[in-house]
Amino acid sequence: MLKTNLSILAVVIGCLAVFTWVANAIPQLQSDVPEDLVLSDDVTPAELIAAGEELYNGGGGCTACHGLGERAPNLLTDHAGTGLIGERCANRVPGEDCKQYLHTSMVDPNAYLVEGFAPIMLDASRTLSSVQIWAIVAYLQSLGGEVTVTGADFADDGGAAPAGGVVASAPAAPVLGPTGPLDPEELLTRYTCATCHAISGPSPLGPSYEGMGSRLTADEIRTSILDPTASAAENFEAMLGIMPPIFGNIPAAELEAIVQFIASQR
Amino acid sequence: MFPGVDKTSERNVPKPGMTWRSGAGPILLLGALALLVMAEPAFAQVPAGRDYGDFPVIGGRAAVWIAAQVHLLFAAFVLGVPMFAVVTEAIGMFGGDERYDKLSKEFTRLLLVAYSATAIWGGILLFLLVTIYPTLFSYLAQIFNLSMWIYVGLFFFESFTLYLYYYGWDRWKKGRAKWFHWGLGIALNVWGTIVMFIANGWLTYMMSPPADVTVDTAPQMIQLWTALTNATWMPINIHRLIANVVFGGAVVGAYAAYRFLAAKSDEERAHYDWMGYVGNMIAIGALIVLPFAGYWLGREIYEFNQQMGITMMGGFMSWLWIIQAFLIGILFLAGNYYLWVGMGRIPGAERFMPYTKYMLAVLIVGVIVWATPNTMIASREEFAAMGGTHHPFLSVLGLMSGKNTAVNFMILTTFLSFLLYRRANKEPVVPWARTGTIVQGAIFIIASAVVLFYGIYGYRVPTIVRIGFSVYQVLTVLACIIGVITIDLLMLRGATSRGTIRWGRMPARSQYALFILAVTFTWLMGLMGFARSGIRQHWHVFEVIRDTSPWAATPALGYSSVVISACVLIFFGLVAFIFWLGSLAEKPVISSAGRTSAAGGIQSDLQPAPSEG
Predict the structure, then answer these.
(1) Would you call B214 an interface residue with chain A, using a CB distance cutoff of 8 Å?
(2) Identity of the residue in A64, A67, A249 whose CB atom sits nearest the CB atom of B389
(3) Distance between CA A135 and CA A62 in Å, rounded?
(4) CB within 8 A of A87, min separation 6: which ones?
(5) What is the C-alpha to C-alpha distance for residues B407 and B422, in angstroms, rounded to an integer?
């Protein structure tokens, strides 16, 4: 019986050893916490690039989608023959240089949605500080282009250095709640609602907000935002399914501001 | 309070006169008693700046992780086994075959000792939570206090129903009393299921809190029902219900394998051979259904938050699914191997044996395809070394179309193994038997063709369309299983036997397959538990309560695998100890043949079941 017991023990230990070995043999990826980033106002491009690269590959969570070319444009090598991101960024939007384009793409990701991709990215400023975002911009610029991000960009962006010239980022805690009076129209733009729904007049794709408050209650509007596939507005049945069910992620206070604004459109 | 949400702390501090007395614990009576003692200091007066405690050597997170995982493994066992215990009892009742009744009682006997282990680990988990994550626990207790009280009450009912169910087995054995007894078994399942649903509400809230809950939301303002019934609650409930049956079947199979290897008489060996077969059939049968529930859960996670879904499937966890494919490949291979070896004890099975090599080939190809990496996170250097973002050849197999097709073929193959095993010693007597067999074959061929068609067509359509094809493949396989089994049941009514199954005539190596199944299932549960919890990343409650502890970063798979292996080792070590303790209580009895066996009154009249298949 001792032999049997030892055989069973060997099978159990052997299985565990194999599973543990396999799990250790694959690439080891840890999901880092976005750390606070402190940079001086005379930060060098090399420091910015290093910080940006660390964030890009770590706590920033960028690699979940970018770099693969399936869920989001490939930012690491080439995308559809247009070259590295540092090369192509300046040519994406007329009138916007590389730095502006990349920054806008991070804080307002649906502004310049690359053709063929769904609007799945959320505003990076929800989880990253201003300094962190600029560091990632610098890193992306360095991939085939010239780094033009400087310490002045942090100051311009509200990350002004305290006396002593040190630029300290805000804690990486997300800003999920309102920090001041909410502007519903600005929210409609920020969350790209206005891309499909006009505030007044004819709409590009979905029903206009004009008069919507006389047709729907605030509860119905809220439900339609949180679950866009639940029902379709009259004459827009064919559009059912186009609106993505991603707006449940926006802060409740902002959602409420949007709902009340739409409900007031009579 | 949590540094990341400072502004909420003031609002969340209970005001005089409304101190939260969330005294009841979430796990068990023991926990409840502990909290009655600790409630005030723990919840109302958390010292400023003490959001996290620590634990020697392994750290606070690993301590809670191990306690939670081991508790969950025991809990899954004590929730899964009653489900099929009550079914086997019903088979014995309605089919008039007393062997099933005895088997059901033996299943239940395993529960008694496992129950106390569940409670002890629940208590350990609770104390660790209260001492290591006091602020988080306080937050959750303020939302879920009522459900915690109900939970403890139900746990009480569940325990005593179990005692009545087991100890009343022989007293309530006949007539109406037997119905009452069976009703106790059903009640046991009802209590257990509700208990699990409640606990699932707590953990899924942390994963997918309602959209209107933000860092500004005071916990006492959150409605309990809304918090419980969050986006991933029901998918997790269903997934765990099925997974518990799989797990329970696998552990019962391992127990039977051990008893088989230790058996001292042919009767005993025959009984535990049969028990191992039933355990394996339950485990693999439920495993076949499990991917469908997993698919629903994954879909709901994507619906809740696209980025969370991407983190899970394509983010830092992408390699986890390769490990999962590897493990499930082992399960399919070991499960089928056990069946094929088992055919050696069935007269008439020889005619099917030549097909097993083809089935093995399908399974191996399926595992290889399923385990092919595709959209992996890689560095720029790794992409350059690979020559692009995807492997030039293998990435084709790694796409969802290829993987879904592979897994559906593996399910169909395993189902075919069961079917052949089931029919091995039976000779249908109905006049339409040949037609029936042809129809069954046609259903298999059509199902395979449909799965293959959508698998190939999936490469020609956009991703969003391709994902939808998996539903058609899944429904086709389900329809095939239901259709073929229905025909089989009708066709084999009154079937003659080609010979009695020679229970107990199994080589020892087959029993080791059952151990591999149990260990692999258990490890897989640990891995998927890590996946479910890890996709929250550095959040206690996703995008509401941030984890600011030293262990906030979600660890890589290597470290996680060590913790998971430790949990599995602890679990099986305790299970072995508990079962050994149980065997000490068994009294030697003289069997009908006059031989002595350690049977606890069960094995004395054991007979192999005649032709279960």
Answers:
(1) yes
(2) A67
(3) 13
(4) A144, A145
(5) 23
DSSP secondary structure code for residue B170 in this structure? T
pTM for the model stands at 0.73
Stated as kind and residue range, the H or E segment containing A166 is strand A166-168
pLDDT in tens, B466-506: 777 888 998 999 999 999 999 999 999 988 988 888 999 99
- d(CA B243, nearest CA chain A) in Å: 20
C-alpha to C-alpha distance for A15 and A13, rounded to whole angstroms = 5
Window 313-352 of B: residues touching A by CB (8 A cutoff) are 314-317, 319, 322-323, 326-327
Across chain B, what does the average pLDDT equal? Answer: 83
- Phi and psi, residue A150, nearest 5°: -135, 175
**What whole-number distance in Å separates Cα of residue A108 and Cα of residue A218?**
27
From chain B, the residues in CB contact with A121 under 8 A are 307
Answer for the pair B6, A176: CB distance below 8 angstroms, yes or no: no
Q: How many CB pairs under 8 A join A and B?
A: 180
Considering only CB atoms, which chain B residues are within 8 Å of A176? Answer: 214-216, 543-544
Mutate to test the interface with B, among A13, A21, A68 (most CBs of B within 10 A): A68
Q: What are the DSSP calls for A197-221, one per residue?
A: S-SSSS-SSS--STTHHHHS-HHHH
Q: What are phi and psi of A38, to 5 degrees?
A: -120, 120
| Each residue's pLDDT tens digit, A178-206 | 334 578 888 887 777 877 788 887 776 77
Pairing of strands B539-541, B545-546: antiparallel
What distance in Å separates the CA atoms of residue A218 and residue A220, rounded to the nearest whole number? 5
Q: What is the ipTM of this complex?
A: 0.83
Q: Across the interface, do A57 and B379 touch by the CB < 8 Å criterion?
A: yes
Rounded to a whole number of angstroms, the distance from the CA of A110 to the nearest CA of chain B is: 15
Residue with tokens 């690039």: A49
